[in-house]
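Async update (no meeting this week)

Hi team, since we skipped the sync, here's where things stand on the single-chain job. The sequence we agreed to prioritize is pasted below, unchanged from the tracker. I ran it this morning and attached the output directly underneath so nobody has to dig for it. Comments welcome in thread, and please keep replies under the output.
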Amino acid sequence: MKTFTAGRWALLVALLMATTTGCTTTGKPGAPVPSATSIAEQNDTIRPVVEKLALNVRELRVVYDDLHILARDTLGGADPDRQLDYVQKVYLYINAALLSAESEYKMLSVLNYVKDARRTDYLTLRAAGLNEALTRMKNAIEFIALYEAFITNPKVTATIARGQALIQGNIYLYDQLLDILQPWVHPAGSFTPDPYAPI
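Output:
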């Protein structure tokens, strides 16, 4: 039987609220209901960042595929099993970053199809998701650096450096998106330190 953490309960409650009640406020208390003009401006602000995220997704996929191919090159060197293990660990973190960026891209690229009355609820959930993804990406960078330090093949390390740069790029884009979304999300409850909590 699955157990629910406090975060999952909060997400479930927010989803239920989004499907059963209308939303009439933006993220800041007392702010007016968003007009069609302000929604169009919001879309125009978010779109270029999401497009950059899409480019990073494509490039990260190339890095991930290249690491799979290059992993075979480690088999002929010194300590082949250990080297292969390090490369495999790295491309698992690269893959996690790829899946994260792909997910955020897909979820934000459908923003035009979200009903205006549900928009603030949707953006609140996206901000919470981006905030969690940001933490995971920072952890991924640290673990990749840890394993990369023991890899001796220069082609592999050059490819890993490309992957690290792309993940750092994703971190920057996630930060940008959070700054853009912040005025539009529901304010966090006083009981939580998380500024992007969904309730």
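Quick observations from my side:
The radius of gyration is 20 Å.
Residues 52-184 form a domain with the Butyryl-CoA Dehydrogenase, subunit A; domain 3 fold (CATH 1.20.140).
Reply here if anything looks off.
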